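[audit] Reproducing an earlier prediction to check determinism. Same input, same settings, fresh worker. If the tokens differ from the archived copy the diff job will pick it up downstream; this log only records the rerun itself.
[audit] input (98 residues):
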Amino acid sequence: MDDFLPPDLRVLSHDQLGGRIMPWLQPLVLDDDMVMCSACGAYRDWLVISTQDRILLRCRAGHQQPEPRLDTAWYNRHARPSDATHATFEDCLRHLGH
């Protein structure tokens, strides 16, 4: 008897994903400094993107910037379990209301 779940119930492994994204609604304070979008000055309602061993922040206006003070370990400590996977980045943005 096969021990594996049927293909439609399997979860992708980390090496099969292009990245992971979580919302971060409150202000993000790092090293006593409130992180602000370098393009528009937004300071809350971020999407935190973990991809290729780096962290990017995306504001509600769609500006993205790297955040070198954060790493994958920080992301893993703060992220909740994933509730969905998406074929494209745009699909994920729509799912998260961005």
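[audit] rerun output stored. Observation attached for the diff report: The longest strand covers residues 46-51.
[audit] end
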